[in-house]
Amino acid sequence: MFWKNVQRKYALTDHGVKNIQKGTLWTVIVNLVVICGMGILYKLMSGFMDTLTKGSPLPSLLLFIGVTALFLVISYTVHLQQYRATYGLVYGEVKDVRIGLAERLRRLPLGYFGKHDLADLTETLMGDVNRLEHVWSHCLSYLYGSAISTAIIAAGMLAYDWRMALACLWGVPVAFGLLFGSRKVYKKRSEENKKSAVRVADGIQETLENIREIRATNQENRFLEELNEKIDRNEKIMRKGELTIGIFVNLASVIMRLGVATTILTGTSLILGGKVDFMVLFMFLLAITRIYAPFDQALALIAEMFVSQVSANRLQEVHDTPTAEGTEVFMPKGHDIEFRNVSFAYDNQEVLSGVSFTAKEGEVTALVGPSGSGKSTCARVAARLWDVDKGSVLVGGVDISGVDPEVLLSDYSMVFQDVVLFDDTVMENIRLGKYGATDEEVLAAAKAANCDEFVEKLPNGYATPIGENGAKLSGGERQRISIARALLKDAPIVLLDEATASLDVENETKVQGALSRLLTGKTVLVIAHRMRTVEAADKIVVLADGKVAEEGSPAELLKKEDGLFRRMTKLQSAGAEWSI
Ligand SMILES: Nc1ncnc2c1ncn2[C@@H]1O[C@H](COP(=O)(O)OP(=O)(O)OP(=O)(O)O)[C@@H](O)[C@H]1O
Fold first, then answer.
1. Which atom of ligand 1 is nearest to the CA of 543?
2. Is CB count within 10 Å lower at the N or C end of the chain?
């Protein structure tokens, strides 16, 4: 129960908590071995005292050298074991926790990423894990081990002389009580600290990502001033936090050290009263240094332990968020996509409400409607990138909310307007469409998507790296890579979001040819802003305010006198005649 709590509280893996247990055990052994060393010293001293006071023969030096040498060997061995169990094993834990987090993030529904920005998640993966690593390696085992060994030593001391034991030990519970009592203050400071650090990271990321727009609008100074302000505020919050922690930790350390003074005072008065001899005081003074040493180390880090709670909670939040799970068996009867009374909301803001329509296999179904009417949301929901709130989406009669997203998505090809590319070569970016595709397959898909024309001009052809998110390519070139990916994947369902919008007329005509090859016999859901894109569609679903306003073939809808589709088509043809 105790260890389960520790595991959850400090976001440890099963393996990690076992390492902490091991580290605790070795810390107990180390502390007890060191106290035995004190015993050897005490024995030597009392031998000398007896020689001085009672005239006993000098203790055998050879025996003491032998015992000390043995002690050193044992001490070295147990310290090494403790080091391995605390520092050594923790590095494996860091790796496991990061991999576990990344795996979890991979399986989370997209909605989660809408609520957390990139800087925040990067901070969790890197900063929070780093902070916890320090606590796992430097604090937990030391603190728990010291608590156990002190309890054992304290029991021995109390049995030997309870007055001296109390004089020695009273500072430990008081100091730790003070620190535990002030935990809330640390937590508050550290939450403030974390928020302001994420705000700085956000500000830097936003400025770098939007540097083009910032320069184009001459807003550099304003952005820099805002960033400076965030950095200044963060520094002030950090200083305030450090000061608060420093005050409590130093106060606790002073209280604990007062134990030395009370031991000397009590020991002296007991010696004067003839109740104990000097060697008892000497023994307790030796013991006290050993009890304080590990706690001193823990004291310096205990604040970090409390502060790390905020990081652990952030990690735990990722682990507690339900992942998009489902069965790995997906055997639909055909690939019709059926929306049954689907409602969906982003952050309680309903965007789709009671949407019902069917996109048939072998047909092109176009989603049209005013901006913000919910077309892209429909496409995302159709691929389970988000889960619906009410109703259901069926593919070939199977409710997709019960299918593992990875398995489901192997049946989808997607070409969206905002193409995502990786900092790799053209070849590898296309190969992403189909895991393990041969070079020949990749080149055939690239050719069909009309990529040859721009790739020939690149210094290393298909082996040319294209920069972060394809920064070295034009919008049309990026989109052709995305179409090549979809062609390579050749999945039975194709989602297109204005796939040819960034192409010039000549390229659009060429790519349309490739697209028609891709679309033959598939279930195609096209999101179209330009009405001429959907002239050849088999069916049109018109969305307005998240509801289906009209449905039918283009010809049927054009006949509707006061229809939305007819009005939009008319408006766009009027727009086409207008020019600067
Ligand atoms: N990630 C998100 N979080 C919150 N709200 C969102 C998110 N994505 C879209 N919305 C909102 O949902 C509504 C529908 O957006 P959606 O992108 O589906 O519309 P659309 O019809 O595709 O628009 P457009 O034609 O302009 O691309 C809009 O009001 C939009 O502001």
1. 21
2. C
